[in-house]
Amino acid sequence: MKKEQRIRRDFDKLRQQLSQISYIARQSKDSNLWNHEASVRKKIKELKNYKDKQLKEYDAVLSGYLALLDEISLRLLRQYNKKKGTDYRFDEIIGRDINGYISSGLISVLVTSHIPKLMAEEFSKNFPENPKDEYKIARGLQRNVILHLGETNTGKTYQAIERLKQAKTGVYLAPLRILALENYEKLNHEGVPCHLITGEEEILVEDAGHVCSTIEKLNSDHVYEVAVIDEIQMIANAQRGQAWTRAVLSLQCKEIHICGAINAKELITGILTDCGDTFKIIEYKRQTPLEIIPEPFSLREAVKGDALVAFSKKHVLDLSKYFQDRGIKSSVIYGDLPPEVRRMQYRAFISGDSKILITTDAIGMGVNLPIRRIIFMTLQKFDGEEIRYITSQEVKQIGGRAGRKGIYDIGYVGVSGIEQQFLTENLETEDEPLTQAVLGPSEAILNIAGLPLKEKLALWSTAQEKLNYYRKMDVRDYLLILENIDSYKLPEAIAYQLMKLPFDVNDIELLNCFIGYVEAYFMKGQKEISKPVPSGRLLSDQEKYYQKLNLYYSFSKCFRIDFDPGWVYAERAKTSARINKLLLNL
Questions:
Q1: pLDDT tens digits along 428-473
Q2: What is the CATH number of domain 290-428?
Q3: Any idea which of 206-210, 350-354, 381-385, 553-557 has the lowest mean pLDDT?
């Protein structure tokens, strides 16, 4: 009897609380709804203890609590839809998952179950199971691919460019702006009219049938007779690799030349076979052998033709200052340097005006210089995530720049520390084969309804590819951009273009400049955006100004904003000259 009385007493308490909780919840501000929703769900779970106790009021009390939960959940859903710009419906979210709704709440069911299921269906509609099938026109062509694979400094790209020159129309896709620029000049100088298109400039030449371009600027809708893709091993790069994957899959071209490291062979031939392309492999060997310098290098031993490799701008500039203080001229190369300045520095080294070259791993791609010895000042680098030892591929890519046929018939590689054994092992060992090409999100993501672009992108990036030789790119930079423009509620097509603009999103000053352009053009309706101005005369100030000029150009070009490209080109040239002068007088 006492047990039945206790059950009745506890149940009556729950029954009496219903009206009290209901009143408080209906009067509550939206910010407190989460707490009330959790409280009601807790009471419903407690009520289930009395389901089989033959209490007449049970069904009515439970129905009251469920109705209150529905009312609060609807308000929460309206909040969510308003904030996210979505239009999810209450009944569609719950479906048959009443238990999940009661145990964890409507928004939890929405985020953990309903949205992923809905998005999975949408993604499968818009993104084919095999990435190659996204490019139907290219799949309809019988493409023949010539793979030029081998070590650094072996003439791979030279041979491909020679074939490109013979075609009526063609495209050279470069990993760096400076390489696109050099081949643009080479083709035009040799009587092959050629355009230059990069994220920083567009120089159109009358009657040109050829284009030299950075790989991200590939026009996949254009048809070419011959195409050249350079540095194919970049296809595995977590952030930029997606541009190489897109080029390999999408090029509308019957003859494609792909150049790069030998460790890309298995991956690329697998993708080409899957695409139904025919291919031929040409492997290249060095004609100038490499030898390890047996003793640790000392700065006092630097001689003409040496290239000293460090892995940070500060280290490069410190070394340059060391030699300048001793009356020894040096050329310097690092990632922040504009291409025009790199060329000035290269020319000083080639002409002999500079005795030595001091560089980061930026030397690893493209330009062939008269280098006798490559000296690693360190064998560790910060790769954006951690400090690590460089890989065997990086050792070969950089070390392979030593030696130049007809000038230095033997190339030498050394290290300033006592790690000759590490150097020897990594030069002699076979590189780990590349196993996965990196994919980026195409514009098809805009066709998916029901979720903001930022969340669609996050879901896309975590979805597992069904083919194990593809993986998703690192989308953190894209997400950072979308997070910073989220409050502007821009159309998705605009947000998609903004997130793909080429600039360092992790540089606060550049990011603020970018946000200023977004506010001026899209929110305030200004017809033009403000030209950047230099903030000082230091080397770092001039480098930052150059980067702002690039952002100003690419933003204006992307959204067809009225601006003067000639002013940008002239200002970049003047800034490059100032940077070069500062480097000569550190």
A1: 888 889 999 999 999 989 998 777 898 888 888 877 888 889 999 9
A2: 3.40.50.300
A3: 381-385
- 210 touches 184 (CB < 8 A): no
Q: Which residue do the tokens 């390489």 mark?
A: 179
Cα separation of 76 and 84, whole Å?
12
How many other C-beta atoms lie within 10 A of the C-beta of residue 208? 18
- Percent of the chain surpassing pLDDT 70: 99
Rounded alpha-carbon distances, angstroms, from residue 444 to 144, 167, 463, 466, 485: 28, 33, 15, 18, 21
286, burial (CB in 10 Å: exposed 0-12, middle 13-18, buried 19+): middle
SS3 358: strand
Of 376, 320, 322, 374, nearest to 348 (Cα)?
Answer: 320
**Closest C-alpha among 244, 228, 227 to residue 236:** 244
Task: Report CA torsion sign: 568, 569, 570, 575.
Answer: positive
Give the distance between the most distant pair of CA atoms in the chain: 107
Q: Would you call 444 exposed, middle or buried from its count of C-beta atoms within 10 A (0-12, 13-18, 19+)?
A: middle
Q: Mention every residue, 6+ apart, whose C-beta is less than 8 A from residue 124.
A: none
Q: Please give the pLDDT value at position 50.
A: 78
Which amino acid would we find at residue 423? L
Span 135-284: which CATH code? 3.40.50.300
What pLDDT is stored for residue 213 in this prediction? 97
**Secondary structure of 126-189 in HEC code, one letter for each residue:** HCCCCHHHHCHHHHCCCCEEEEEEECCCCCHHHHHHHHHHHCCCEEEEECCHHHHHHHHHHHHH
- Token couple for 489: 């509620």
| CB contact at 8 A, 206 and 223 | no
What does the alpha-carbon distance between residue 77 and residue 377 come to, in Å, rounded to a whole number? 59
Question: 514-547: per-residue pLDDT in tens?
Answer: 999 999 999 999 999 999 999 899 999 999 999 9
* CA angle, 548 then 229 then 409, to 5°: 95
Over 70: is that where the pLDDT of 279 sits? yes
CA distances from 471 to 135, 303, 308, 436 (A): 18, 45, 35, 6
- The overall average pLDDT reported for the chain is 90
| Coil, helix or strand at residue 246 | helix
Give the residues across from 174 on adjacent strands.
214
Which DSSP helix (H) or strand (E) runs through 203? strand 202-203
**Interatomic CA distance for residues 195 and 237, integer angstroms:** 27
Location of structure tokens 């002409």 = 351
